[in-house]
């Protein structure tokens, strides 16, 4: 009985210490992600750009596959609805490879857009960046006319200009896009909700 009490006490002490360490480490991670946000985002952009350059031929093949088949407008990670289908249900090796290689959450096909066709490849950010930066999203897109666009609206925008909207006093949006190589562009967007 005495040994059992000591074991439980030891278990709770270790558990409390571990919880305390996790809390300290999460505050430290948040501090670093906030303090070095620009450098981290720049690193993300450079690594995505390098992967796009290295995989350009594969990506062009994926766009051709999407354009030549009766595939819904959205190819998603998991969600199935009238406009979208999960990539696994397509059973397409090229699309599956790109989804996995880039950690995609979505491919959006707007190649028939009257302003100029484009295909968006949205990348899944990890839980830590969402906790620190909020609704921060990034990825890349193929622009048929090699012009920078706002992927949310399809409208052409100026390159390297941060777009900022205050939709309401509680909802703010910013967007930025930069050229990777001909026809390929990197984008970042963030929604801020302050209710």
Keywords:
195 residues; 6 helices; 8 strands; globular; alpha+beta
Overall outline: globular
| Strand runs, count | 8
β-strand percent reads 25-35%
Query: Distance between termini?
Result: 53 Å
Helix content: 40-55%
Structural class designation: alpha+beta
Mean pLDDT across all amino acids: 82
Low-confidence region ranges: none
Strands of the biggest beta sheet: in what spatial order? 2-1-3-4-5-8-7-6
Q: What's the helix count?
A: 6
Largest sheet: 8 strands, mixed
Radius of gyration: 21 Å
Number of domains: 1
Order of helices and strands: HHHEEHHEEHEEEE
Characterise this structure:
This protein has 195 residues and is of the alpha+beta class. It contains six helices and eight strands, in the order H-H-H-E-E-H-H-E-E-H-E-E-E-E. It has helices at 2-35, 37-54, 56-68, 87-90, 93-102, 127-133, and strands at residues 74-76, 84-86, 104-110, 118-123, 135-143, 163-166, 171-181, 184-193. The protein has an eight-stranded mixed sheet. The radius of gyration is 21 Å and the shape is globular. The chain starts with a helix and ends with a strand.
Secondary-structure map:
Blueprint: H1 2-35, H2 37-54, H3 56-68, E1 74-76, E2 84-86, H4 87-90, H5 93-102, E3 104-110, E4 118-123, H6 127-133, E5 135-143, E6 163-166, E7 171-181, E8 184-193
Parallel strand pairs: 1-2
Antiparallel strand pairs: 1-3, 3-4, 4-5, 5-8, 6-7, 7-8
Helix pairs in contact: 1-6
A few lines on this structure:
The chain is of the alpha+beta class and 195 residues long. 44% of the residues lie in helices and 27% in strands. The mean pLDDT is 82.
